[in-house]
Amino acid sequence: MNYITKRPTRESLHEVQFLTGNFGRHEGRFDFGGRINDSDTFSFRMTGLIRESGTQIDNVPNDRVYIAPALTWRMASTTSLTFFATYQKDRAGAFQWLPADGTLGFNPNGFVQPHRFTGQPSVDRYNRTEHSVGYEFHHQLSENWKFLQKMRYNRTRSKCSTSGYLRSEAATIGRGMKRPTTSAAPPAEQTARQPGAPP
Q1: pLDDT tens digit string along 52-83?
Q2: Distance in angstroms (rounded) separating the CA atoms of residues 26 and 44
């Protein structure tokens, strides 16, 4: 995995962005960096993002909080040590499964709107939290040789649950939850008639 985050810069950096878009998207971003004092001994970088947004599917959000600080210590002109960290929290909805018949192709029961949410808002979710810490040590041994050592610890935790799907005949919605047990009992099913479906 080529996991790269932004590094401190000696040049002063002050960048702020505000974005808006479809589905109630509101997003703020910032990227600050530069030297901590007049010398080049210490420099920093602070990158972040806050987003609150919906998606093309009803009841499926796309929210995110992200922050990534970094600090570089230049012990000498040939030696530097950089510490960095990240934190990210996502709140999104579970995938919604719709058949090809009724969305891309013909279905005698009618047309299924692409924004159709087939789950339960209180149950369906995909939440993820990720954080990492690490360092990068750099020492220039000579004009042609240098020593570089890197380390990063990363941890990701996710929670996903989904309860709804449109069955293959595109006339009923299945309801079920997979539980972490060995029970062979089938999930409960609940019938919901689609617009234009025959009685």
Answers
A1: 999 988 888 999 999 999 999 999 999 999 99
A2: 27
Tokens of 111: 């047309």
* Measured distance CA(29)–CA(184) in Å, rounded: 48
Residue appearing with tokens 């617009």: 195
Q: pTM of the prediction?
A: 0.75
Identify the three-state secondary structure at position 71: strand
Cα distances from 41 to residues 13, 21, 29, 65, 142, in angstroms, run 17, 41, 27, 31, 21
Written as six digits, the tokens of 137 are 């040590």
* Closest of 87, 52, 56 to residue 69, by C-alpha: 87
Instruction: Tell me the two tokens of residue 87.
Output: 């934190």
